[in-house]
């Protein structure tokens, strides 16, 4: 049995065409079913639904043979201990610094004042501001980062941005782009040895689908 760990939403939706390219159809719809283990048309392949930030933990510890998760999550978790054979070029976005439209970010950074930064991505934010020589107080949040500057909890946030609509709706502006993000395939190292043929076949089918799509 091959177990693939996915999270609901963007990554699940963007993975379906890749699975189809490998002749795998997921038989349950996670939006309407409460099942966490989803069958596929291939008796030897199943999908488990986990939180995005739990995908690396499942794969690293053998709860799943493979997983798909964002570069952001992998950096925060520490991707060591997993084989990362492919950038799938899905769920693309960027991780950026944003502030209230009326906050003078340039001035705050230039003056060397301590910036209060709210984020789920503490490791990425710490490294980014340290490299710039900016002193920050990091405030760890688990969601709705946009609220932090609006309520006075923080001066800035570090968050994923795709269209920019969420920032705009909350009167925030993107002031720095930290890095581009897309989702990667991760593989448990022991699974790769023990189930080499089916896992290699899956990696190859995904790689072919990604290459064909980038040619369009
Ligand atoms: P947007 O309004 O399109 O800029 O999307 C921003 C919101 O969607 C933020 O709350 C982000 O945390 C979330 N988001 C954007 N892109 C992704 C992604 N690839 N994966 C997960 N969440 C995302």
UniProtKB/TrEMBL annotation:
The keyword Nucleotide-binding applies. It comes from the Bacteria. Its EC number is 2.4.2.17. It catalyses: 1-(5-phospho-beta-D-ribosyl)-ATP + diphosphate = 5-phospho-alpha-D-ribose 1-diphosphate + ATP. Residues 51-206 form the ATP phosphoribosyltransferase catalytic domain. Gene3D superfamilies: Periplasmic binding protein-like II (3.40.190.10). It is found in: Cytoplasm. Pathway: Amino-acid biosynthesis; L-histidine biosynthesis; L-histidine from 5-phospho-alpha-D-ribose 1-diphosphate: step 1/9. Keywords: Amino-acid biosynthesis, ATP-binding, Cytoplasm, Glycosyltransferase, Histidine biosynthesis, Nucleotide-binding, Transferase. Its main location: cytoplasm. The keyword S-adenosyl-L-methionine does not apply. Heteromultimer composed of HisG and HisZ subunits. Catalyzes the condensation of ATP and 5-phosphoribose 1-diphosphate to form N'-(5'-phosphoribosyl)-ATP (PR-ATP). Has a crucial role in the pathway because the rate of histidine biosynthesis seems to be controlled primarily by regulation of HisG enzymatic activity. Belongs to the ATP phosphoribosyltransferase family. Short subfamily. Lacks the C-terminal regulatory region which is replaced by HisZ. This is ATP phosphoribosyltransferase. It comes from Rhodoferax ferrireducens. The gene is hisG.
């Amino acid at each position: 049995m091959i177990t693939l760990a996915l999270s609901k939403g963007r990554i699940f939706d963007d993975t379906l065409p890749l699975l189809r390219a490998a002749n795998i159809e997921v038989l349950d719809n996670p939006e309407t079913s409460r099942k966490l283990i989803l069958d596929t048309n291939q008796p030897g392949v199943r999908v488990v639904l986990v939180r995005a930030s739990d995908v690396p933990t499942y794969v690293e510890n053998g709860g799943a043979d493979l997983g798909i998760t964002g570069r952001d999550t992998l950096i925060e978790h520490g991707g060591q201990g997993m084989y990362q054979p492919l950038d799938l070029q899905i769920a693309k976005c960027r991780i950026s610094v944003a502030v209230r439209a009326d906050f003078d970010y340039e001035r705050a950074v230039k003056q060397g004042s301590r910036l209060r930064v709210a984020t789920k991505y503490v490791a990425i934010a710490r490294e980014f501001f340290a490299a710039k020589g900016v002193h920050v107080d990091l405030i760890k949040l688990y969601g709705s980062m946009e609220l932090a500057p609006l309520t006075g909890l923080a001066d800035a946030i570090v968050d994923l941005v795709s269209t920019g609509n969420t920032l705009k709706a909350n009167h925030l502006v993107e002031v720095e782009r930290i890095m581009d993000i897309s989702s990667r395939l991760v593989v448990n190292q022991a699974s790769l040895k023990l189930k080499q043929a089916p896992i290699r076949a899956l990696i190859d089918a995904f790689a072919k689908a990604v290459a064909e799509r980038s040619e369009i």
